[in-house]
Design a protein that fits this description.
- It is a single chain.
- It is built from 7 helices and 11 strands.
- By secondary structure, it is α/β, with parallel strands linked by helices.
- The protein has one domain.
- Strands 3, 4, 5, 6, 7, 8, 9, 10 and 11 form a 9-stranded mixed β-sheet that branches.
- Helix 3 packs parallel to helix 7.
- The chain is globular.
Length: 285
Amino acid sequence: MIAFSRFQQVETIMIDISAGATRWTWGLTLATTVLAVGCTSMSSTYSSVMGSGAGVTASDPTRLTKSGFLSDYGRLKTVPWADGIQCWRRPDLDAKRYSKVLVSPIEVNVKPGQKKGIAPADLKSLTDYFHQSMVKALKPQLQVVDQPGRGVIVMRIALTNLVPTKVVESLAGTAVPYGFVAEAGAGVATGRPAGSTPYLGETGMEMQLRDGTSGAVLAECRDTQIGRKYAADLDAGAVGAAQTWANGYVNSFQSWSYARNAFDKWSALTAQRFAALRGAKPAPQ
């Protein structure tokens, strides 16, 4: 059993959420109740519903895109170093030959009807954020340049799926007493990741790496991340579990928060993979 006293501090956490002109205040006593139970059987049941990952977004292989941005989708395979993400790289790729990276401006290659529903300012903000996130993640180990050339990997990225969170529906779902029980299970029931709901945002990405001199394709990846309103890591301790829960919960009341979380996750994974392939020590995140 986990002592309840370890979780008492969580009871005092309150989240102040702004939705339009209305301000909502929600307590996290519900999270405390679930996290404080602590027995093995409850942990097992909780994990089966919520999922064991700590991230507030999760990969959804059923929503992977095929936009035409990549050269060959047939050779992409799910990789062991990141759940759900599909990648391919040349068998003879020697990552140590590359000490520089050029992160091209993020392209948008979404479904025909999606772009119309996104404000131009939001779209620019999202692509700028993703670019900055990737540069920040790679900069500690690779020199970031603005021209291709010898020893340069050219990174091309396209956003291929952009669905904002429906904030009004998220608020409505939360207002129902014990509504979280139905919401938490709705993800799995509808084929979405555990802890997600049908009204949460999703973000798809396709990435291509090219040689800075020859232009040869070195590697390609694709992924689609789905928001998780109810996410927790039972192995992270009281504070870590509460923070993960709170992050997922707060993000469900903002249109593009899950997209930004997905960008940061992809950036971190890319930097970690570069470090592994180059035999370098990854920078702390």
